[in-house]
Amino acid sequence: MKAVRFHEHGSADVLKYEDAPEPQIQANEVLVRVKACALNHLDLWLRMGVRDWKLPLPHIVGSDIAGEVAEVGSLVKRVKPGERVLLCPGISCGQCEACAHGLDSACRSYTLFGAFVDGGYAEYVKSPETNVIPIPGDLNFDEAAAVPLVFVTAWHMLFTRAGLKPGEEVLVIGAGSGVGSAAIQIAKLAGARVIATAGADWKLEKARALGAEEVINHSRQSVVEEVRRLTAKRGVDVIVEHVGAAVWDACFDSLATYGRLVTCGVTSGGEVKLNVQALFGRQRSVLGSFMGGKGELMEALELLGQRKLKAVVDSAFPLKDAAAAHKKMESREFFGKILLHP
Ligand SMILES: [Zn+2]
After folding, report:
1. Residue 318 forms beta bridges with which residues?
2. What spacing in Å lies between the alpha carbon of 102 and ligand 1's midpoint?
3. What is the pLDDT of residues 96-114, one digit of tens each?
4. What value does the CA radius of gyration of the chain take, rounded to a whole number of Å?
5. What is the largest CA-CA distance in the chain?
6. Residue 175 and residue 36: Cα distance in Å, rounded?
7. Whose CA, among 123, 194, 208, 335, lies 20 to 30 Å from 178?
8. How confident is the model at residue 54 (pLDDT cuts 50, 70, 90)?
9. Residues lining ligand 1 (ion), CB within 5 A?
10. Does position 246 have pLDDT exceeding 80, yes or no?
11. pLDDT of residue 53
12. What residues have CB less than 8 Å from 247, skipping those under 6 apart?
């Protein structure tokens, strides 16, 4: 089959479109013909090898996969060839206490498609049957691939970690990111008032269309001052953040009393300062969040199938142009998900 692999870590140019062995399925596995695979920042981290992860090389990244079932193993009961499916990106044991509680990403054997197993930058990918989910409603393959990782992440951040309630005020940092564009919609649908930030006016217009009531252009406005103005000096109840150091102080200072700052990423760096007095005095919480459970993804998919939430697709590239797609993600000139088509 054709796949995009890297044999060494580095810039986008290490991505090679080449022949690779077709995956061989086990009795409990499913072979999926990939129709669309969405990019995530994780793909860039894995390609660059920044965390000294010992990946098997050559490697195929890609965690957000939609396609058609090509073949099923002899023990597979639920899934049939020809079905239109998406893959739950997180792979866990399904048997431990964390898994039994639906806390898949706390499973000690947790991994993702494209992390320690091959992912979706390929014509075919293999998956455990348990990860295969029928595409809900009339979503097309692009929409289905644009959903899983960012919607499960945003859902887990807002509800499971931050305990969002109707009527609260939510600040979403980086509206143009996949997580940002999902969080705006989920928070709005849950009855929150959403304030979103981005660095370009064209992104803020799109954020409003997704449900943000107020927007802040962080390239020319102070997030802290705007949040104070927009909330009558009160601050916001919940902040969804994935940028890290560059926005940390502004986020923390924008929290209301009892506010919760929930973060899932460090694209600008992970070392920050914390004023502990302002933490306990205002009874604030700082929360980490990582992926989420298959059950949470299925809850989000129900609403996507009903078109109450929508997949946000920026653009699509042929698989062979994966390097150009990575460069686009690095440029920050996008809103929503960037896709690859094998
Ligand atoms: Zn487990």
Report:
1. 341
2. 9
3. 999 999 999 999 999 999 9
4. 20
5. 62
6. 23
7. 123
8. confident
9. 92-93, 96, 99, 107
10. yes
11. 78
12. 173, 218, 223, 241, 268
